[in-house]
Write a structure and sequence with these properties.
CATH topology of the largest domain: Cytochrome Bc1 Complex, Chain D, domain 2
Number of strands: 2
Radius of gyration: 33 Å
Distance between the termini: 103 Å
Order of helices and strands: HEEHHHH
Helix content: 40-55%
Number of helices: 5
Largest sheet: 2 strands, antiparallel
Length: 160
C-alpha cells in the first residue's frame, strides 16, 4: 500500500467520524428543541401538569375564617379594616412582615411612602387611612425593653 492510499483511508475515516458527530449534534438539538416546546412528549406515564384553575371558594368556608380574634390565613388580628390590609399588604409580602413591625402612625405613613417610592406600591387612596388606622390600633409600638422583668418568682437557696 502506498502513501497516497493510506492518506485516503485516513481522510475517509476522519470524514466518517465528522459526519457521525454532526448527525449526533443535529439529533440532540432537535430533541432539545422538541423538549423545550412540549416536555410532555417525553413523558412515558402520561403525567402532565394540572392546569385546572382553582377557585378561591373551592378551598371551603375557612378561607377568611377568624378564630379567637385572629385571621387564620394571615395571622392578623381581627379588627376594622382587616380585609383592606389583607388585600393591599399581602399582595407583595408576608403578613408576618407587617406583624413584626410595630410603629406609630407617622412611621407607618413613612413606610408606606417608602414602599410607594422604591417598591412600586400603588396609590392607596382612601384605603391608606383605613390601613394606617388598623395598623396603629392593632400593631402599635411596644414600650417595653428587651424582656419583661421577672415577677412572682419563688426563690430557693442553692445547696452546695
Amino acid at each position: 500500500m502506498n502513501k497516497q492510499d493510506n492518506f485516503r483511508k485516513q481522510v475517509k475515516s476522519f470524514y466518517g467520524v465528522l459526519v457521525i458527530s454532526f448527525a449526533l449534534v443535529l439529533i440532540i438539538g432537535v430533541l432539545g428543541i422538541t423538549y423545550m416546546m412540549d416536555p410532555s412528549v417525553f413523558s412515558s406515564n402520561g403525567d402532565t401538569p394540572n392546569s385546572e384553575v382553582i377557585n378561591i371558594t373551592d378551598e371551603g368556608d375557612d378561607w377568611d375564617m377568624i378564630e379567637n380574634g385572629i385571621h387564620l390565613r394571615t395571622g392578623f388580628k381581627d379588627g376594622e379594616g382587616l380585609m383592606t390590609v389583607v388585600n393591599n399588604c399581602t399582595n407583595c409580602h408576608s403578613a408576618q412582615l407587617v406583624i413584626q413591625n410595630r410603629m406609630n402612625e407617622e412611621r407607618w405613613i413613612e413606610t408606606i411612602r417608602w414602599m410607594q417610592k422604591t417598591q412600586n406600591l400603588w396609590d392607596l387612596g382612601e384605603n391608606e387611612k383605613v390601613i394606617v388606622n388598623y395598623l396603629v390600633t392593632n400593631y402599635p409600638p411596644k414600650s417595653k425593653g428587651r424582656r419583661e422583668a421577672l415577677t412572682n418568682i419563688e426563690w430557693y437557696p442553692l445547696e452546695e
